[in-house]
Design brief:
Order of helices and strands: EEEEEEEEEEEEEEEEEEHHEE
Number of helices: 2
CATH topology of the largest domain: Immunoglobulin-like
Number of domains: 3
Number of strands: 20
Distance between the termini: 90 Å
Shape: rod-shaped
Strand content: 35-45%
Radius of gyration: 45 Å
Helix content: 10-25%
Amino acid sequence: MIYGTAVPSPLTGTIVTVVNNDGITATYATTGTSTSPAGTYPITPTILDPNTRLTNYAVTVTNGTLTINKAGTIPTISESQPSVLLQNAVTFIAHVASATTGTPTGNVTFMDGTTALGTVALNGVGTAQLTVNTLTLGTHSISFVYAGDGNFVASSSPTITEVAQDFQFTISSNTPSSATVLPGGVATYGITVAPTDGIYFPNAVTLTVSGLPTGATYTLTPSTIALGSESTPVVLQVQTASTLALNRSTPSGLTFAVIFLPVLGLFTLRRRARSAGLFMLLGLAIMVGVNGCGSSSGIFAAPAQTSTITVTGTSGTLQHSVTLTLTVQ
């Protein structure tokens, strides 16, 4: 019989050399049951002698054998999602059912082609799960091997397909990757975020921005690429601060000399004409310094600030980024 099935009934045997219609018969019983572990069990005869003739015989009793074989198994496999972004978790679910009754026990080994992903014990309902985030880019054939146990035969599951995808950034052709604005101006960039090896994003991607100029703020639309989205255009707008920090570098000694030496000369020169000339020289020096504003060499100059802005997409532990350039004059 097969484990989990009913014991054959009735059990039968043969009695030989009974003579003179003495009416000797037998019944047969076994200790094996439908839930007994796979193995062998004796079938024991019990002699019935309604006419009390058994004393006329030399009786030899030979027990029979009941063999309980392991039951077959029905393996099935499923997945939490058919595709996944790299470094994102996907769960594979193995279920091993009995072809008769009972619940298989033991271990299953999940396979990626011929590569073992991991071994997990079946739970009380014949199920095991394995979660991985290490699949490489491309298409994977996932299955599992059931090792069997004392009552159930080993088996292998069918194969399912799991696709590991990636995503990428591209700069929109309508907007450059660099922009130049005046203080208080707004720079606009266009970016496209698209999945590779597929049409839809199998996982959500969160976008963040770093590297902004001091005092700048940004608006990112959208800031999250939702699961199931297709290739998605993203607009980044950077609002710069209305003023730039002044150049804090110390004016050169020559500049100080040009401005202040004539002032010192006023205290030593007595002639009015010469004093008037020195005032003119002082004014000219100050104009030179003031006219330096807006360039990188003036006393009060605020040089152009160039920043590298990074837009980063994150999904699980997977990250990709694109860099943009912003110059504030």
